[in-house]
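Take one record.
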Amino acid sequence: MIEMQKAMAEAGIPLAQDFQMTLEGTGQAAAAVAQFGNMTIVTTVTALSTDAIPDEVFSLPAGYTKK
């Protein structure tokens, strides 16, 4: 999937994307996921901006500690 995203990035920014996924397999995990059936993920860009992103957006929340 990373390779697909890199190829898409070279073509530009996608403004709409439909991703259809079919899952196959055997075993307990496959059986659990199969209950959901095939999946479709729809992504739509609703706004673009070239504004600077404030540094606070990348700050850790107050009181955050690493375990």
Remarks:
- Residues 2-11 form the longest helix (10 residues).
- The first strand starts at residue 16 and ends at 21.
- The chain is about 25% helix and 20% strand.
- The two ends are 31 Å apart (CA to CA).
